[in-house]
Amino acid sequence: MDVWWGTLLPQPPENREDPALERISQLEKKLLEASHTIDDLRSQLETKHKETEDAEASVLQLRELLTLAETSTDKSDSSPAQVGATASAKHLAPKSSDLRLEVPNTSAKFTTDKVLWSVKDNLGVVIMNDPKKLNCLSNDMLTGILTAFDNFEAQQVRAVIIRAGPGVKVWSAGHDVNEFKVKEGDDLEPFPQENPFQQVLIRIRNFSVPVIGAVQGSVWGGACDLASCCDLLVGTPSASFAVTPAKMGVPYCTSGVSHFLGVLPLHIVKQMFFTAEPITADQAHHFGLLNQLVSADKLDATVLKLAKSVASRAPLVVKVVKAELQQLTSCPGFKPDEFESICALRRQAYRSNDRHEGLAAFLGKRPPNFTGQ
């Protein structure tokens, strides 16, 4: 029982630690944390060293695939496929056994090329090579791609890789808008079947062997359609995909829309077409547009491994499966009245003031003022 004098009795001393000892304890704790940090950094350095070794090994492996060497100027020694290459698609004959995927430091005679291509070990590689115009799909570029595929068919390749040059920020800017112009009142479709762009899409989709797209950088407009027509896609984190006709007032053909439905969920296709906003590489991988998402330094090695795997399988089986999948996923047939209705809507949009406004705004680098007229 407490008594009143208890407060008068001497109180026991408070349990206070020596400040110096407390400081020493804190320093010891920080030293321990620093030791753990050093261990983590050492582990990260070892991992980076291993990744560097892997990257160097990949480069060596690529050099065994495709070295883009000087074009042979002696046509008497050229194969029929090589002679078929035009100024827009240079065939770069492999020099000895060295081949690589990336665009080389070309001499002046290659500076106007739109497309580079080569073949080795049953693999065809086509490289969009117009970085000054952001690899826009001009008629020259598209004709060059068609020429490359004609040569791949003649040489009976078992897989094709299509890509831009290494390190680009824009894989392709899509259509060359300067080639959109038609005569006023013209009833022609914006992209009829005989148009080089449509021909490239048809060629890729109907090509007898798989076409693999290697995507680094942003992909815009019609280039998204081209990418979606590839059988397989591998991309890097810098890849993005935007379908932009709604920004420019240009109607999109029904077959083109169907290409996206074959590789993306319906609501994502709607979002891309309605908003004209890009989806990221992570989103593209999540929704299935990209088969694989890899770091930029592993893109070539990953695509090469995939192409070699395809090329090593039974060619006739691969061809028939691609043909079967193409038929099974083709756009379903329309009733005649439904098809005519859609065509009428497209013609209306193509003749509209909004189409002219969209193109003018794009060329003038200003926001469009759409009126729905």
From TrEMBL:
Annotated keywords: Coiled coil, Lyase
Region listing for Disordered, in residue ranges: 1-20, 71-90
GO biological process, one term: fatty acid beta-oxidation
GO MF entry, a single one: lyase activity
Pfam families, A to Z: ECH_1 (PF00378)
InterPro entries: ClpP/crotonase-like_dom_sf, Enoyl-CoA_hyd/isom_CS, Enoyl-CoA_hydra/iso, Enoyl-CoA_hydra_C
Superkingdom as given in the UniProt entry: Eukaryota
Any coiled-coil regions, as ranges: 24-58
UniProt similarity note: Belongs to the enoyl-CoA hydratase/isomerase family.
Protein name: Uncharacterized protein
The species this protein was found in: Cymbomonas tetramitiformis
